[in-house]
């Protein structure tokens, strides 16, 4: 065809075919880092994203991760072939053992299907799509509040999102009565998203006795639990203790889903390593589940990435590396706990109005401070401290050196910006 005869399409002359786009807002959590990166101030502090920092304020690559990487890179028998759709077999087995316990009867009875997914988020998404396709009830209940991305992940997966009461601002604790009432009136079969430990953003977890009541209610109403385990080991520093909730639901023989992330507990944020497990009633059903999960995954991303899963599998299967990991993990959890005490003490010594005991009582990576959006924006503008507008701070982003600066900012926000 003569190129001179090709007339421009009408849209070409009036600009881009995408010119009508409306600018989307930044993500409420990851957007905080975008804003932080633009700030030239030398005293700036990012307490938005839940990512561990050292006392020097630097990201941490665990020593065991470096060792495992070294082994992998120096092993000439390793290649870069595609993984199966469900991921690395060793990684899947070891991940199930980590969350359900090495002696879990459900593992021995082959009732668990585990597939490697793209970190916690990808595991939730694959689980959500699987449920939307194959489960009889499309309603999923999320705690209020919850990690902001949950609503988007499950809505786009095709589920209908509702909430159950979880946090009581007045007591800065669990609204246990509200939780029981809301789950008690949920339609039978509804899916219930539960944070396995270290609830994000509140840092408030049910006690073991409360978990037991929640379990009984969920089972009596035939609700389907979907655990999000993004912080195993980060809450208490102990991997088994932090899996207690999940294991109690497996012990009763009932069915459930669990999404695991290695972003925090192995510091593998950018490697995107996680797993989705579905616990069924029988080995036969578990194998049907696996066959259908493959149909969810294949058109989404075909198969998961190799490197991060190899690191995790290398650490989990070697006794020495595993032990070293638990020590490093405990070190991170302990540093966060000590930041809680330091921040609490710093506010007390400034006489900052309010009861700040929730800072030391809450669990995991975050403190839900109770600061309002105006106070948050004051702290960002005047003190270059970045946090999400709901007043959540990542304790893991603090250090002994930055605690006084944060305490000054909170004190000023509470006394001047309210
Ligand atoms: N589930 C919960 C409860 C989380 O807090 C997070 C991460 C995830 C799942 C997803 O983690 P993956 O990285 O996909 O494994 N929340 C952090 C990290 C930043 C973000 O929002 O993704 C946070 O700051 O809330």
Automatic annotation (TrEMBL):
Its EC number is 2.6.1.1. It holds the Pfam family Aminotran_1_2. It catalyses: L-aspartate + 2-oxoglutarate = oxaloacetate + L-glutamate. GO terms for molecular function: L-aspartate:2-oxoglutarate aminotransferase activity; pyridoxal phosphate binding. Keywords: Aminotransferase, Pyridoxal phosphate, Transferase. One of its GO terms (cellular component) is mitochondrion. NCBIfam families: PRK09257.1. In eukaryotes there are cytoplasmic, mitochondrial and chloroplastic isozymes. Important for the metabolism of amino acids and Krebs-cycle related organic acids. In plants, it is involved in nitrogen metabolism and in aspects of carbon and energy metabolism. This is Aspartate aminotransferase. It comes from Lotus japonicus.
């Amino acid at each position: 065809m003569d190129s001179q005869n090709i007339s421009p399409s009408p849209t070409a002359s009036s600009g881009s075919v995408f010119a009508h786009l409306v600018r989307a807002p930044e993500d409420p959590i990851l957007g905080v880092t975008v804003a932080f990166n633009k700030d030239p101030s030398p005293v700036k502090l990012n307490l938005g994203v839940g990512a561990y920092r050292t006392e020097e304020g630097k990201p941490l690559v665990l020593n065991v991760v470096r060792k495992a990487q070294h082994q992998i890179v120096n092993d000439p028998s390793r290649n870069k072939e595609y993984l199966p759709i469900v991921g690395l077999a060793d990684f899947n087995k070891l991940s199930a053992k980590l969350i359900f316990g090495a002696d879990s009867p459900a593992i021995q009875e082959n009732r668990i299907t585990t597939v490697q997914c793209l970190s916690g988020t990808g595991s939730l998404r694959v689980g959500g799509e699987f449920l939307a396709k194959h489960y009889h009830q499309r309603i999923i209940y999320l705690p209020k509040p919850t990690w902001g991305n949950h609503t988007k992940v499950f809505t786009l997966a095709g589920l209908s999102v509702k909430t159950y009461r979880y946090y009581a601002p007045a007591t800065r604790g669990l609204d246990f009565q509200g939780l029981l009432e809301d789950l008690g009136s949920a339609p039978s079969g509804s899916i219930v998203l539960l944070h396995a430990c270290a609830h994000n953003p509140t840092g408030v977890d049910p006690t073991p006795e409360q978990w037991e009541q929640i379990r009984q209610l969920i089972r009596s109403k035939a609700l389907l639990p979907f655990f999000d385990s993004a912080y195993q080991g980060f809450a208490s520093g102990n991997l088994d203790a932090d899996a207690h909730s999940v294991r109690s639901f497996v012990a009763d023989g009932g069915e459930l889903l669990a999404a695991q992330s290695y972003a925090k507990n192995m510091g593998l944020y950018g490697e995107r390593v996680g797993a989705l497990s579905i616990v069924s009633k029988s080995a036969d059903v578990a194998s049907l589940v696996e066959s259908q999960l493959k149909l969810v995954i294949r058109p989404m991303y075909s198969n998961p990435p190799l490197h991060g899963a190899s690191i995790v599998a290398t650490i989990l299967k070697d006794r020495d590396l595993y032990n070293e990991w638990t020590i490093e993990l405990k070190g991170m959890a302990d540093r966060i706990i000590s930041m809680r005490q330091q921040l609490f003490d710093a506010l007390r010594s400034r006489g900052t109005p309010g009861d700040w005991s929730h800072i030391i009582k809450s669990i995991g990576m975050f403190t839900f401070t109770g600061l309002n959006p105006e106070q948050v924006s004051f702290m960002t503008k005047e003190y270059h401290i970045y946090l999400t507008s709901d007043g959540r701070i990542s304790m893991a982003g603090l250090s002994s050196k930055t605690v006084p600066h944060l305490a000054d900012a909170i004190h000023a926000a509470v006394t001047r910006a309210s």
